[in-house]
Structure formats: structure tokens, C-alpha cells
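[Automated response] Your request has been received and processed.

Submitted sequence:
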Amino acid sequence: MRISEEYSEIQTDLIEVKSAIYIGDFAIRITFNDGINKLVDFKAFLESSSHPSIRKYLDESKFEKFDIVDGNLNWNDYDLIFPIYDLYQGRI
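Generated structure:
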């Protein structure tokens, strides 16, 4: 019996957040490492949540204090984080 495997040269690049700027009213302009820019509005998500650990970010002074960690937006040491694919699609 002969076992063979084929390997392709397809390279899968990971999408990462390169930069992010808080615009105001819970919207963030995000630039990804492939040059794509998205304006993501987080307000509806925050307002619709009933969980206190999410609703606390309706305080803009807390919401605007995010960092970029490992190519993703991160609030307060992973207290709030979103899938990069959703950010890349411009929706939460």
C-alpha cells in the first residue's frame, strides 16, 4: 500500500488589526494588515446586551480604552474582545 500526500503552496495570511482609532459614539475606525479599513459601530451590541460585564462599556471613558493585542482589539485584559472575522466584515 502506498500513501501519498500533496502539499500546496497556498499561503494563508492571517488577518490582524494593524491600527484602530476611536471615532466617537462607540464607533472605531479599524485598519487591517491587508490595508482594508472598516468603521465598526459597537453601540447597538453594547445597548442590546443585558450582561453587566458588557454593559459597563456603555461608559465611553471605558470603551475608548482598548488596546491592540495579538492583532485584535482588546479591552481590559480580554474582558471584552470580538472575533477578528466579524470586525473585518464591519459588523458586531
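Summary generated for your ticket: The chain has a mean pLDDT of 92. The chain has one domain: 17-89.
If you did not submit this request, please reply to this message.
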